[in-house]
Please model this.
Amino acid sequence: MSRNLWEIKRLRLKPELIWSMALSSLRLRMGRTLLTLLTVSACCAFLLFLLTAPISDDPADRQMWGLMITLSLLVSVAGVLNTMLMSVTQRYREIGTIKCLGALDSFVLLSVMLESALLGLTGALLGIVGGLILSFGMGLLDAGAGVFAAAYWSGLGWKILVSAFVGLALTTLGAAFPAAVAARMPPVEAMRGEK
Model:
């Protein structure tokens, strides 16, 4: 067996096939893809905005800041989980077909998780750009030319990495349960398109 091929029972699949399946699934379900991108982007943008906004030393303000971050993450997780659950549910027949051809549960799980990771990474990058624009724009309104002195720009690289990680984690964790359910479905049941 060649190193760049994966053998799955009777199927021999190239890693490029997994990429192309994930991308074609994203294209076919463009509405849900855009909804997930919007949710993840908004979450990452808001998170980056909060991380770069000046925070007072008042404990009540710090508590409110933490509460806003927590609520934005909870809403984003719920939105992404719902979107990924619907995306996997729509793919039951497709999953049943590839399982009938010999695909293992791990292949189904990998393809769904790869699709969600692509969504998360793209959404996080869009959110980071949006968050930087939002932070800079709000800083210009509040501090004028002294925007760089008023905002917490120190450690901006770490704040960007945290936002990117959150966006990626949102989609992959949101897709983990639906992907595991779909991977464990018997092929006949998946072919019927029911759960």
Remarks:
- The chain is about 80% helix and 5% strand.
- The radius of gyration is 20 Å.
- The first strand starts at residue 6 and ends at 8.
